[in-house]
Amino acid sequence: MTDISSPIRVGIVGYGHLGQFLVDRIQKKGLAAGLSLAFVWNRNADKLIESVPKDLILTNLSEFTQIKADLIVEVCHPQIVKDFGVRFLSHANFLVGSPSALSDSQLDKELRLTAKKHGKTLYVPSGALWGGQDIQRLNDSGSLKALSIRMSKHPSCFRLAGGTFSDWAGEEGRCVLFHGSVAELCPIAPNNVNTMAAAAIAASTLGFHGVTGEIVSDTALADYHLVEVEVTGPDGFSVKTVRRNPAKLGAVTGSATYNSFWSSLLVCKGHGGRVYLC
Ligand SMILES: NC(=O)c1ccc[n+]([C@@H]2O[C@H](COP(=O)([O-])OP(=O)(O)OC[C@H]3O[C@@H](n4cnc5c(N)ncnc54)[C@H](O)[C@@H]3O)[C@@H](O)[C@H]2O)c1
């Protein structure tokens, strides 16, 4: 556990929507919450100059070890998790904002081993997932039989890799874009499946290959995203949840997810060498 008398020093990696939100919150409410900024990195450092004090700007991410951080928060891109995740976790607790990166089973394994070896926690934010810790408990007791998650959004809210499904782009109405394993879905829609990835990490006995994901484009969903989760346990046990996540047209991230991410950050005080859904 980190010493609670001194604030937890947080390094923020990425300064897009989530990064800006978190930096602003830490600057305004951090001390009351026991947090302070250690550094902020963005691939384009110019974006930071106006709003981040100069001494907190990290220009070369490879030099993150030169600044003491208790917690590193990635809110950038799965590629940064691949390139830096193991190094981050060797030095600090690590909140992975792009958990879809863990669909790469080799990386998943390396991160889990690094957490154990260095006694650092790999935090996975539950994001728009409802009941993640219940899923994890069912998983840990060996009772989780199946898990499927459907995310439905307005077509403007999808960012799909390399023009995938470009033929549906202008379609009116509802269209199932993909139905299959979360492992197959993550590389296709890396920015849209963090919630499913968090579920697959909680459901480690099923894993990314065993959890079913579906993404649906629906032009009726102009004001919110829908997240539907169906959990199956033994002897006819099942839970279905439907979450409406208010979101503006074109927004990859629902607005409720920002506050959810902040709540996740407040949990990251050190839980030893393991993966922790928060
Ligand atoms: N876990 C969750 O619940 C959750 C919720 C929302 C977003 N996310 C994820 O968090 C990340 C940030 O989300 P956001 O809404 O702030 O996105 P955003 O697009 O607003 O910002 C991303 C930032 O990362 C930078 N970036 C993009 N690709 C990069 C790369 N390959 N290398 C270095 N920098 C790169 C961009 O320049 C930008 O500054 C995304 O991966 C997103 O999928 C996770």
UniProtKB/TrEMBL annotation:
Pfam families from the UniProt entry: Asp_DH_C, NAD_binding_3
GO biological process terms held by the UniProt record: NAD+ biosynthetic process
Cited SUPFAM superfamilies: Glyceraldehyde-3-phosphate dehydrogenase-like, C-terminal domain (SSF55347), NAD(P)-binding Rossmann-fold domains (SSF51735)
Aspartate/homoserine dehydrogenase NAD-binding domain sequence ranges: 14-125
Any GO molecular function: NADP binding
Residue ranges annotated for the Aspartate dehydrogenase domain, each copy included: 173-257
Matching InterPro entries: Asp/hSer_DH_NAD-bd, Asp_DH, NAD(P)-bd_dom_sf
Record family assignment: Belongs to the L-aspartate dehydrogenase family.
Protein name, as recorded: Aspartate dehydrogenase domain-containing protein
